[in-house]
Amino acid sequence: MVRRRGVCRVSSGQLCAALLWLLTCIHGLNAVKIVKVVVPEIIQYGVQDAVILDCDYTYGNETSGLMVKWFFKNKARPVYQWIASQKPQDMGILRGRVDLTYRASNDPLKMHRALRIVKPNTDISGDYTCVVSTFMEEDSRTKQMIVFVPETNFRLIQNKTDDDTVNVICAADGAFPAPNLTLATPERRLDGVSHNLKLVNGRYSAVAFVTLNDADLPSPAEFICTLRISQAKYAVRKEAIYYPGPISTTPEMPTAADMQLAAAVGSKGVKLYTALSTVLLRALAQMFAS
């Protein structure tokens, strides 16, 4: 009696799975992969001399053509490029603003992976994308950074152009990103508020304005203006007390900035501009009369 030797049969599915596993292992040995991107979410203008954006990664056996690029807002053109074994380059909006001597690691294949931006300003607020690549692989990550500027001037003005109404005006200058102004009383947010926003030399000026009837207000009435910059998780407020009644003999004088902002409102700001002009002229007349 003759016995047949056992035959080990391998299905095509098992063979494909084995080949896939083998290719995955080979790929893993050569892959470049970003493991950590550190980009400050919010920094305040003028508080620090420099900011560091880091992009750490792992690499495999195949590192030919290893290159790190940083892109700002879009991937059309890089703002920083480093090819391993060569000197890093800054370009575009970051030309002349990156410390090219900064080293994030002693590893010669990671040495200049990071950006050290000197004297960060609001114009570099936005999305930053780190791209690490070799001739075989590429990986990328994106994070946002906001350079935040608090307001330089924040005021809440109340004035009257007749005995029955009051103009409540909140104005702020010098902020970035764009601030949001809200007018309210302790009980509710005011309706019918007009807004104006203007960008001047990279900083925002904002105005919120509403006219209220004295008959609808308690005596005294409290007004609250809140300035918020949501991207920076920043908020401040001003309060003012108002006593309904006839026009005061000593109205509060608006500043030159208030007049400029009122003029910039356009057609929606005719009432605001008229109100401020009337108050200013009346105050000047009283000064000369005294």
Automatic annotation (TrEMBL):
Transmembrane helix among keywords: no
Signal peptide limits: 1-31
Keyword set, alphabetical order: Signal
Domain of life: Eukaryota
UniProt keyword Plastid present: no
Name of the featured protein: Ig-like domain-containing protein
